[in-house]
Prior knowledge:
The chain is an alpha+beta fold. Helices cover about 35% and strands about 25% of the residues.
Amino acid sequence: MTFLFSSQVKKELREFFDIILFLNLLGVLLSLVSVYHWFFNLFDQFLHVYLYVSLFLMFIFLILKAFPQIFASLCLSMFCALSFYNTNVKVVNSDLNSKFNIYYQNINSSNVKLEALPLAIQNTNSEIVALVESTVAAEERFLNLNEYTKKLSLPRDDNYGFLILGKINFQVNEIYEKFGIPVYVRIYIEKYNLRMYLVHLPPPLWKDAWKIQQDTLKKIVNEINLDRPQAFMIVGDLNMVATSNQFKNFYKEFSSPPYSQELFNPGTWPSFMPAYIRLPIDHVLSNKKFSLKLKDSFGSDHKGFVIQVAN
């Protein structure tokens, strides 16, 4: 393919992609020091993006026959890939013979197509519907879903609203707030003896938000380690990826490591990006086996998914 380019064009392309390679390398280096300061935590969220960018650059440099850059991109790709295997996360994604369904989504209801979402959720045959970033307008769209007889509604217009619907009974045990922000709701699903935390943490864009993430996750994991529930599930928008130091530090605190989704699952945010460039910041962790089926975004900036849980 290189014969299609003149020597001058090839030189300019090489210089352009060298800049991208440098920025990619800079991002990886910043992610290395993410454990020391909250600001750098933003960079280690993107390690898997750096991986795909490095592989893309390697392909480009191969076309341009830029061999030093090919080697540099390969080394960078290998380093990023190793970060996935340094999480020690116990993953599961298997077909389950006996299961029940939970639908989860960050619906970002200022943009979501609210007229389409209720029917789509109804078609997933989910016994529990768990939504974050719910507003009054979003709640009103679900009033006609008569089969969902149990409801917890905490609508807000500041991106921290919750809506939980159930075809089966559930009890609300705790609504936890941090600095005036509701960050999780804990319910008990009696039919399956399941304790479920529906979580929505703020993005780590400022130091207090990072502290909210740390304190909230520490509270949840300490509670689980102390009470040792027979079945538990943590589901929601944690605003962190499994390869980040923030997530790793949280995960290793469990006395018995729960299952998590596979590290190479397509991400959920932002929904308009290609699958493996999206950030997987929406999580499921459980001591029960489960599998995930990614669904449409319906206009939200997050993809939703159906969680099929072994019962």
